[in-house]
Amino acid sequence: MQTATPAPRKATRPRADALRNRERIVTAAREMFVEYGPEVPLDEIARRAGVGNATVYRNFPDRDALVGEVVCSVMERTARAAEHALAETGDAFGALERFVHAAADERISALCPMISSTFDRHHPDLEAARERVEGLVAEVMDRARAAGQLRPDVGVGDLLVAVAQLSRPPAGTECLSADRFVHRHLQLFLDGMRAPAPSVLPGTAVTLEELRQS
Q: Where are the domains of the chain?
């Protein structure tokens, strides 16, 4: 007599409420990391997310796991903003402008220190997310350049450095109180990227390779 082989069990999908809780945790963590830095107590993140401490630890066993999820989620949102810019028709430079302002709103510059101090900057998930963002930004810039709207002597590295620096609050300034200046200064920078260029830039365009080595 042969024993019937049990049918393989299907992998269970997370419940909708569990997915919502996870998203609330990541959103709350992103906000609080920007406001207070990566050492904010996890119970404070749980309180802002409206979940219990156990729910946080069930989704993220330690702080590094949560930081990694936040950083990668910001990169994913930035990539989607670039995709939306590429999907636009008409004014290529206008699409680039809207992407830059959307990227600044993600406050990735405030999260950058956590990549080196808390989260492994060479983590495969982060590497994949970074490469995706860099490739999409290059496409957005190439389209504006091909339309004759973007000066030819700027590179993807120039843009990424500017967004990071201009969306980071000056030393001694509270992070959120500086928000009102960010988009003003970004627009000043963007106006300087328009073609025809009114001046010659010193040095050469910053490449992604140079940016990674810095």
A: 15-61, 67-213
- The token duo for 88 is 């636009």
Reported pTM: 0.78
The residues that bridge with 150 in the sheet, in sequence order, are 194
Per-residue pLDDT tens for 18-27? 899 999 999 9
Of 184, 185, 100, 192, nearest to 154 by C-alpha is 192
Count of C-beta atoms within a 10 Å radius of residue 101: 17
Q: Is 194 helix (H, G, I), strand (E, B) or coil?
A: strand
Q: Which CATH architecture has domain 15-61?
A: Orthogonal Bundle (1.10)
Asked whether 106 and 78 are in contact (CB, 8 A), the reply is yes
Higher pLDDT, 121 or 142: 142
| CATH number belonging to domain 67-213 | 1.10.357.10
